[in-house]
Amino acid sequence: MKRKVLACVLACAMLFLGMGYAYWTDSLQIDTAVTTGELDVRFVDLALFGQYPDEDGWAIFDGVDGDGFDLADTRWNNKPGSYNKIMTDEQKEAYEDRIVGYTETAFAAKLVNARTLGQPIGDNDYVSGTWSSDKIEISVTDMYPGYAQLFRADIVNPGTLAARLSELNVALNSYSNDDVKDMIGISLEVMREAGAEVINLLDGETDTFFIDGVEFVRLSALEAVYSDLQNNELFLYPSQEKDTFRMDLILGVAMDPDAAGVYTTGSVDAGNPNGNDDASTQNMSAAFTIQFGWDQFNTPEAPVPEA
Question: Which SS3 state, helix, strand or coil, does residue 70 take?
Answer without folding.
Answer: coil
